[in-house]
Structures are given as structure tokens and as C-alpha cells.
Amino acid sequence: MTQTCPDSLDPARATAMQAMLGDPRAFEQGDALPPFYHQLYFWDPQPPARLGRDGHPATGIGLIPDMGLPRRMWAGGSLRFHSPLLAGIRAEKRSSIESSTRKDGRSGPLAFVRLRHDYWQRGSICLTEWQDLVYREDPGPDAAPPVPPQARTDETTAQVRSFDETALFRYSALTFNGHRIHYDVDYARAVEGYTGLVVHGPLLAQMLMHLAEAQLGGLTEFTYRATSPLIAGEVAAFCWADGALWVRGADGRQCMEAAAR
């Protein structure tokens, strides 16, 4: 099954993203979009009756399968850049499921889904993206939080910043992401077991891609994996060392790891 979604790549949305990041830049028709800005486009809006409890489109509707587990997370992915997408020029996203599996982990049953997205513009493929989803059970009331890995401290370049509730709201709006862990703190804590509002994994990946592009002068491939949630208001270091990237929380834990070339 392949799902196709067209979009005109409105330059105003990329301009709004720049403003949200605190780096104002106006995009015009035909301008090359930065890596990963396709996340601002190709929305799949659904009416309330077709949403899950988490605010995302319900599983089992459209492309996303129902794996029989209530919690769904974007755990990572990889991208292969062929040529930049251009603002204001019609493009098409073609999506399919590459694999879906279930297994038993130490914390209970898990399911994994890998999606493939191909982005086309002017008759050529510009970007291939693989997106990894993880499904799991709700945490029990007495469940101990998982122990996150410790992050490296040998970076040669680092950028430090945090994201407050306003930044999370604006990024959710720009990406049409209705997941409640990013704006409903009671839901995030009581249902999904987080300590507060969760910074979007794709936003962390976006910051690492900006860092990698600045170091390399351009990107051909990027792979990333979320390892621990970053909570709104936490200060994090976005780190680079010889093609490796990671996000380090203030307590030293690793929130995301990535590689770029």
C-alpha cells in the first residue's frame, strides 16, 4: 500500500519555522529549503472522530497500522538527500510500510514499524526518508523509569539551548502535530509517564541537522535515534565530533544520537 500526499511547500511556513528557532529569514518561491524542513509540510489532517487518545491520527486508519499497543513513539530514522526541495514548488510525498514486527522486551511487549517516504519534485526524487515507530504498553503505576545512556563529553563543537512551552506549541502548529505529550502536561505525566512536556524528537533531530550542515557544508545522509526524552525547559547541549552528533541533557544523559555525512 502506498499513500500519496501533494503539497505546494508554502514559503511562509518555512519563514515561520525560522522565526520559531530565533533565526529570522524570509523564504521566497524557488528557494532551497533546509534539510528536514519537509516536516513542516505534507499534513494529514483528520477530523476528531479519527484521532487516537494521544491526539495523533488513530492507528489502523490509513497507512499507520494498529499494533495492539497504546503508546506510539517516533524513535528515530534516516534520510538520504538527493537534491534540495524548493519552496513554493509543488511536491509529492509517497509513503509505504517497509516492515512491521512485534517482540517481547524487558519492559513488556513491543512493536516496531518502519515507514519509507519518497519526496518528489519536478519529476525527480529529492529525498528518501525512513521513519522508525515504536509501540509499547502504558507504564504501570509503580514502574521504574528506564535508565538512559550517558552522553559523550568529547565534542569539538556544541550549541546550548532549551525549548519552553511556547516553542513546543509553535513547532506542533507548524508540523500539525497533535500529540498531547507536547502540550497537555497532565496527560504526559499521568498517562504516558513523563516528568513534563516532551520536546519533539524531530525538533531535536532538526537542531542536529543544522549543526551538521554547518560543519560539513551540506548533507547527503543523516541517521538519528532517540534514547531519552528531553523535557520542556531543560537545557541541552547539541554536540558534534567528527561526523557524530548527540544531544546531552543537563544531567549528562544522552537524549539523541546521530551520524551525518
Compact description:
With 261 residues, this protein is an alpha+beta fold. It has one domain (2-260): Hotdog Thioesterase (Thiol Ester Dehydrase, Chain A).
Q: What strand order characterises the main sheet? A: 1-3-4-5-2-7-10-9-8-6
Rg, Å, rounded: 18 Å
Unreliable stretches? none
Classification by helices and strands? alpha+beta
CATH architecture: Roll
- Give the DSSP E fraction (strand runs of 2 or more residues): 25-35%
The CATH H-level superfamily is Hotdog Thioesterase
Major sheet description: 10 strands, antiparallel
**What's the rounded overall pLDDT mean?**
94
**H/E element order:** EHEEEEEHHHEEEE
Approximate helicity band: 10-25%
Number of helices: 4
- Total domains, how many? 1
The total of beta strands comes to 10
- Identify the CATH class: Alpha Beta
